[in-house]
Amino acid sequence: MGLHYVLGEPFGFCKHEKDTTASRKFLQEFLQDIPPPIIGPVFDKTVPNNVTGLVGRTAYLHCRVKNLGNRTVSWIRHRDIHLLTAGRYTYTSDQRFEAIHEPHSENWSLRIKYPQKKDSGIYECQISTTPPIGHPVYLTVLEPTTEILGGPELFIDQGSTINLTCLVQFAPEPPPTVGWTHEKQPINFDSPRGGISLVTEKGSTTSSRLLIQKASSSDTGYYSCDPSNANSATVRVHILNGEHPAAMHHGQGSIPLCPPIVSAMIVPFLLIFTARDL
Q1: Are 94 and 83 in contact (CB under 8 A)?
Q2: Which of 54, 152, 269, 275 is the most buried (most CB within 10 A)?
Q3: Whole-model pTM?
Q4: Measuring CA to CA, how many Å separate 162 from each of 150, 155, 187, 274?
Q5: 102-116, 130-144, 238-252: lowest mean pLDDT where?
Q6: Distance CA 81, CA 117 (A)
């Protein structure tokens, strides 16, 4: 079958040749839109690389590698450039660290048992390419904190209610018990004094509220909140009997000092008076 020429086209240019040129141009543009094939292992950057852990609670650092091939994934601690794991094997004498990997999985995790605050820092998930490539993971280990709101000193009017609120945060679990002491002696909620109660609400932040009604001078002193799985916190309570809180720091009956501006006025007057006498 012979080729058919198209009217209006230059001599020697046939429809078959025009279609071939258009197809080639379309193919080139189409190939440009296709991303190049991935060569070699790469890290999945969608995996979070900021991890917050709690003292005493197992922490996991995650790393996902695609197209690993026959390479090895290792975990290295930046603080001392210490090799922790290689593949599924642990290379540190610290048995708190362990490599976690499921066969045929892209996930390579580092498990840290009983983490301490000193374990905070940068850990690197590294692939054994030439040269090696790494992906940093930042670990922050939080230590439990205990705080009595309004401290370290509170001033309470005599006859009013003492309201002490203790907050426990960042503990691996809510404290089993939260004790209170007054002048280092456990508070007796069944004492003849009466009017003493405690309300504790446990959760990610545990609150313990100590209420002492009809405060008297005998209630003055140091109060401590002692959670069973965190450090204690102390506050000093002053019971006021009509005096101003500032007077408590100088002792009762102290004479206020002259304001600086008054002293500055007296000194020139004395100098003038002395000069006249001379």
Answers
A1: no
A2: 54
A3: 0.62
A4: 12, 9, 14, 57
A5: 238-252
A6: 18
- 144 has which bridge partners? none
pLDDT single digits (tens) 194-238: 899 999 999 989 999 999 999 999 999 999 999 998 899 999 999
Distance in angstroms (rounded) separating the CA atoms of residues 150 and 161: 15
- Token pair for residue 251? 């002792």
Q: How far apart are CA 200 and CA 197, in angstroms?
A: 10
Residue closest to 167 by CA, chosen among 193, 203, 218, 142 = 203
The structure tokens 């379309």 sit at: 26
Q: What is the mean pLDDT of residues 168-190?
A: 91
Q: Beta strands 178-182 and 221-227: pairing type?
A: antiparallel
Q: Where are the beta strands (DSSP E) in 78-120?
A: 82-86, 89-90, 97-100, 107-112
Spatial CA neighbour of 49 closest among 125, 131, 118, 119: 125
Cis peptide before 136 (omega within 30 of 0): no
- Can you tell me which residue has the tokens 């975990």? 75
